[in-house]
Write a structure and sequence with these properties.
The mean pLDDT is 92. The chain is mainly alpha-helical. Helix 2 packs across helix 3, helix 4 runs parallel beside helix 7 and helix 5 crosses helix 6.
């Protein structure tokens, strides 16, 4: 099994970091010049994790940065980080961190 190249991983990260919805698996596979099936195997070989967990981890990391560094509304952060709704964002954030986005931000201010 071959892992993705450093350049392919950089391109995937660039696409994931863009505001709004992350690109589809088919789009990322195409960007890498791979079939979807081969892309999944290569991605896992490169990172040791699934694409879904990797993307979620990156989105939560970006959300934490926004929550701690800006006064941006939580619903705007949710959209910027690629969540379908503030409720979906709050649920994913809580699952990953144990607190809601508001609780996370409030804890930083105290």
């Amino acid at each position: 099994r071959s892992a993705l190249s450093r350049r392919q991983m950089e391109r995937i990260n660039e696409r994931i970091e863009m505001p709004g919805k992350p690109p589809s698996i088919a789009e990322m596979a195409k960007d890498c010049g791979l079939s979807t099936r081969h892309f999944f195997r290569s991605f896992r070989a490169a990172t040791g994790e699934t694409l879904t967990s990797y993307v979620t981890e990156r989105k939560i990391f970006r959300a934490k940065e926004r929550l701690s560094q800006t006064e941006m509304a939580i619903k705007v952060i949710a959209w910027e980080c690629g969540f379908d709704s503030p409720a979906a964002f709050s649920a994913a954030f809580r699952k990953a961190t144990g607190v809601t986005p508001r609780q996370f931000r409030d804890a930083l201010m105290h």
